[in-house]
Amino acid sequence: MIKLVAFDLDGTIADTIPMCIEAFKQAVSPYASKILSEDDIVKTFGLNEEGMIKEVVSEDWEKALIDFYVIYKEMHTVYIQPFVGIRELITELKKNSIIVSLITGKGQRSCDITLHHFEMEALFDSISIGSPDRNTKAESMTELMSKYNIQPAEMVYVGDEFSDITACSKVGIQCLSAAWIASLSKMKKLEKENQGYVFSSIKSLHSFLKKEAHLV
Fold first, then answer.
1. What is the spatial distance between Cα 91 and Cα 98, in angstroms, rounded to a whole number?
2. How do residues 105-135 score in pLDDT, each as one tens digit?
3. Smallest Cα–Cα separation from 164: which of 140, 185, 132?
4. What's the burial of 215, exposed, middle or buried (CB within 10 Å: 0-12/13-18/19+)?
């Protein structure tokens, strides 16, 4: 039985990835040796924003980071809200005494900005943030299992990227692929990598968790 459900943030809780890319492009390009492309930025995913900036800026990365936070926060006033149904799903899990955690690659400040804007700061039982040096999601999953004294079969992680499947595999937990905004080609690739655990809607994920976590 599932006792803990952990969620990714960007692309899973809300469609924030385009905003992250645009903020990064505007803030960091002036400090880089070129105008950063979307591909340049995506290649740095898995690190927090400090690590991402250090990958493309050799000098003045601290200034670029400060500019990033300013632009990132401003963009929240005109950009997205959480996906419809995600807040209700999390609330239902908590009402059924399921531990609900957030595991994100974002840094503390950007995570705080987004959760504050969404009014979701108090919605998670625990929040694990990223590192400037490496993808730490697998480590965060292990720490959560130890903290709450649960086994891998009692935990799942909801994330939208292939790297989430890899991280889950490292620690023996099941990844539930969040594909509600995935393109058809990405959907097919996710199905190949994570057959039977790819969800095209929050409603379908809800149905799965209702059964596996014994929601009432």
1. 10
2. 999 999 999 999 999 999 999 999 999 999 9
3. 140
4. middle
